[in-house]
Specification:
mainly beta, two-stranded antiparallel ribbon, 27% strand
Length: 88
């Protein structure tokens, strides 16, 4: 009698997309850091070099352009809007 070994395996990959909206400050400055030249001239505090890791990241609780507190209502956590499990 021979022993049988199962070689069945299952692999999967899971992806999800969560959304947070960062609205512009009342002074007009964007809610995230940009490397765009227009931002550099209009809202210098929100500009960073293109190789800076802050590109696309939220500016935080204080606007770097006008140095005023950013209201909590300027950030909206929408939450997870999509999830998919890929099975092989």
């Amino acid at each position: 009698m021979t022993d049988t070994v199962s070689t069945d395996t299952q692999s999967f990959r899971e992806q999800a997309l969560a959304v947070t909206i960062h609205r512009a400050c009342p002074c007009g400055a964007p809610g995230v850091y940009h490397s765009d030249e227009w931002i550099m001239h209009q809202y210098a505090g929100c500009w960073v070099a293109c190789d800076d890791p802050r590109v696309g990241q939220p500016v935080g609780d204080v606007c770097p352009h006008c140095n005023k507190s950013r209201a909590p209502s300027l950030i909206e956590h929408v939450g997870e809007i999509w999830r998919k499990i890929f099975r092989k």
